[in-house]
Amino acid sequence: MADVKQKILVVEDDLDVAEMLNAYFRVQGYEVFTVNWGEDGVRACQTVNPDLVVLDIRLPDIDGYEVARRLRTDRRTQDIPIIFLTEKRERADRLHGLELGADDYITKPFDVQELRLRVRNALRRVSQGSLTNPVSGLPDGALVDERLSETLGKSGFSLLLVSLINLDIFRDAYGFVASDDVMRAVSLMIHNAMREVGGSEDFVGHLTPTDFVLIVSSANLSILGERVRSRLEQSLDYFYPIKDRDQVSRRNDRLVIKVVEVPSLSGRFPNVEALKKELLRLIR
């Protein structure tokens, strides 16, 4: 019996882009469906049941954010991976998309090879039960939610949030291979800092693709936070090519690390979703 092809739904009002993506992903072995309106995208998700949606934000009727919101609030479509493909480059736009449950966010003009790998990674993440991030290898999705839920009922533990800011701008300038190298390096430095300072029950995973959440002993929170901040801030410039480092150090859109300490959880949050909403607000 032939293997069942994975299905991709492309919601894109630019007919040339939609046709190009249709042809490209069919050659890659996927079954591809394309629609040009947001309402059609919502309906197609319910009828086609795709394995993944590539979703433009600027659409003729409802925008991609509204499409994503409807998909995430419908039991039939709530788990379908969504990759935003858009001209919107502002961090606030990216965060809004991630907050709605998007799995990735790629800006136009885009590298089709990068999009192919992002699609592959998202589909692989689903097949693995969303347990690990395909770039960093750290826990993601349900596994992070489970650990956060356990922490809500424990005393003596705090959270440390670490956000890698402007990675999308770095990716636009230097490519997805370089940006993935940054993510892996940052993940490794966080992990090493925890191993040096933390305890056996400490945990690190992804809150979003570029935001990390660390569950640590409250006694170690401040010293670990300072070590992570110091180590990462000293390293970020080295991810840039030597010829660009002097110029980048004076720019507002360079790679930046933000570290936020959340010392107490006891009794503050009724559930994991309320906790995650607050963590995303704090890390912005």
Could you explain how this protein is built, in words?
With 284 residues, this protein is α/β, with parallel strands linked by helices. The protein is built from eleven helices and nine strands. The protein has helices at residues 15-27, 38-48, 64-72, 91-99, 112-127, 142-152, 167-174, 176-197, 221-235, 245-248, 272-283, and strands at residues 7-11, 31-35, 52-56, 82-86, 104-107, 157-165, 203-208, 211-217, 256-262. It is globular and about 55 Å long. The termini are far apart.
What's the short story on this structure?
With 284 residues, the chain is an alpha/beta fold. It has helices at 15-27, 38-48, 64-72, 91-99, 112-127, 142-152, 167-174, 176-197, 221-235, 245-248, 272-283, and strands at 7-11, 31-35, 52-56, 82-86, 104-107, 157-165, 203-208, 211-217, 256-262.
Detail the topology: elements first, then pairings:
Elements: E1 7-11, H1 15-27, E2 31-35, H2 38-48, E3 52-56, H3 64-72, E4 82-86, H4 91-99, E5 104-107, H5 112-127, H6 142-152, E6 157-165, H7 167-174, H8 176-197, E7 203-208, E8 211-217, H9 221-235, H10 245-248, E9 256-262, H11 272-283
Parallel strand pairs: 1-2, 1-3, 3-4, 4-5
Antiparallel strand pairs: 6-8, 6-9, 7-8
